[in-house]
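Anyone? Bumping this.
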Amino acid sequence: MVRISRQSHQRRVMVAMTIYVIVFLWVWPLARAADTLWLKAAYALAPVPPLLYAIWLLARRVLSADELEQRTHLIGIGVAAAVVSVFGIVSGFLAAAHVFPPEWAAEALVWIFPLLMLCYGGAQLYAARRYGGGVCDEGGMPVAIRFLYAATLCACIAAYFYFRKGDRDASATMLGMAGGMAVFAGGFAVWRWLRGRSMRE
Amino acid sequence: MKNRVRELREKRDWSQGNLAEKLDVSRQTVNAIETGKYDPSLPLAFKIAKLFGQRIEALFEYEEEK
């Protein structure tokens, strides 16, 4: 299989995830107000196609990877599967014991995919670094820019919750996430600059 | 496992990127092999040996773990 450049892969994933967020914010909420069951199902499942596209992109990237990259992907997926399984079983037990309302369990399910992706990315990055790889190898987009993009996306969602929905709690949560990601972006930018300076000297 | 990949690559004046392209792997993989952080699979080891025109045992040397 032809190797796909990291930059091209990242660009496509970002487009898919942006579409996912837009659909999730603007189309998915229509499901609750829909009259018929099929329309409700159609609205509720609207965010799924961009997610499937992102999963397909990931599968294609793994299949076209070399043997070391495949090993790091496997470590990433293994760690992510373990974390998500623990998250799922803990949420399930707590929901079954009515420790929290059942609606929360449904919301927890929505967070499974983002959690899986986050753990997968982190563990894969850690494994790649153990083999001497860097966060910006193979001409990929700098990690600071990726975090900055995610921070901007979270800030947009926060603004949406605040101005369109009037939901201050959700807005504060998203704003907190945006702030955290912006801090990571700044940290990685400084680290990259310091590393570049020490290499020049 | 010890190997002579870096030595042979430098003799040919190839960069890690050049070698990675010839082997159809990433530069990171070439770097990991050269620094001994990763031992290649048998097919990849044969591919490297063939590329350098060497026998596989002339390229890779097994070391007992301490």
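Late reply, but here is one note on the structure posted above: The two ends of chain B are 12 Å apart (CA to CA).
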